[in-house]
Amino acid sequence: MQKIKKGDDVIVTAGRDKGKRGQVLRLTGDGRAYVNDVNLVKKHKRGNPQRNEKGGIVEQEAPIHLSNIALYNPTLKKADRVGFRTLEDGKKVRYFKSNDEVVDLA
Length: 106
Known about the structure:
This protein is mainly β and about 110 residues long. The protein is about 0% helix and about 45% strand. It has strands spanning about 10, 20-25, 30-35, 40-45, 55-60, 65, 70-75, 80, 80-85, 90-95.
């Protein structure tokens, strides 16, 4: 089980986008994540007339290392550390370390 998953609301803790919030779009295998509207870079794309794609300079998300993002705690309205706990029914869940609130109840 991972501390940060796809669809989580995260906040950037280090780098040029420090303080920005976004949702995790996807995770890579090497410990990086794509976060919505965070770590935007400009990429020069070549057009393809057969697919009706225009060329030009496109702004898109670049991966950011997992050590530079933290899960956003909505009750405290700040970044929080995550731990793991096993419930009575044997289900393993994530919880916020500061207020012991379970992250994923669903």
